[in-house]
Amino acid sequence: MRFAFMCKDKGSEVRARIAIVGAGPAGLAAAGYLACAGAEVDVYDKLPTPGGMMMFVIPPYRIPRDNVMEGIEDLEKRMSVKFITRTKVFEGEVRHDEGDEFVERTVPLSKLVEEYDAVLISTGTWRSRRMGVENEDARGVYTALEFIYWWYLYDAKLYNKRPEMGRKVVVIGGGLSAVDAAETALRKGAEEVHLLYRRTIREAPAGAYEIKRLIREGINWMELVQPKRIIVENGAVAGIEMVRMRLGPPDESGRPRPIPIEGSEFVIEADTVIAAVGELPTPPMQSEALGIKLDRRGRIQVDRFWRAAPKVYAAGDVVTGPSMVGKATGSGLRAARSIALSLRSVRI
User: Fold this and answer.
1) pLDDT of 197-229, one tens digit each?
2) Do 135 and 268 share a structural domain?
């Protein structure tokens, strides 16, 4: 996986110092483009190695981690990109996000804006949505992001305690995060895995192909159901109460709105519940700062040049919300092109 695929050698068109905050697909693609243009690029990331979710969350059968590492090493050795890991960039009172366990120091975003000719924010979506049901903080309830993340840390020997997981696992959601969490549970030895979704397989974001593949592997798929509460015994998950749904008129997403059917509640026994109901953007600030504005969903607002404020650009899922790796990579390249065009005349 080459992130600096647009050149053989480092160029000289842009002589400027650029900081990239976030070493996921958008940040790495931007680093490759800008290094090819001749810029001196420093990439800051909170994790112990670059790669973001491609290294720590997305399963290797989707994106081989060795391929990602080859691309990162190419940026370091051939393009002289510098990676500053275990470092969280944040302006103001620091917010704890998932994946922050390895942070050793925090750097104010304003410091980077002051020291570099341009800053690109590509911090992704490291915060999970809540289900909003009773007892979702009980022992045995996880988000898909943390469940997959901690299993990766354990497998990579970055964490020496085997993650807790019961025999009967219920996953809530219909996207790729739900698919990956269900498959991870099955591969790690769960006896029963149920994948439950509030719409039908036709509306599932992961697609019918992925879900049918899981069904063939032995995962139990149930559609048109929604969680109502987590059942707890002695402080831990014992089951989940679901309610059946019917599809109504389209909602703001354009898909049929799921509507609860009164009196249709039922219970599924479970000792592990995984919520895979989406992730939220994690910009490096709690609210508007340095002229950078956030929309009501917490996404950084940018203009058509991917500019968020003077000297500050943003790309990837922190701008668009959760997306596929290809879309994040594309936005990183477009933002990098805008930065390069604006800095052609800047000299170190």
Assistant:
1) 999 999 999 999 999 999 999 999 999 999 999
2) yes
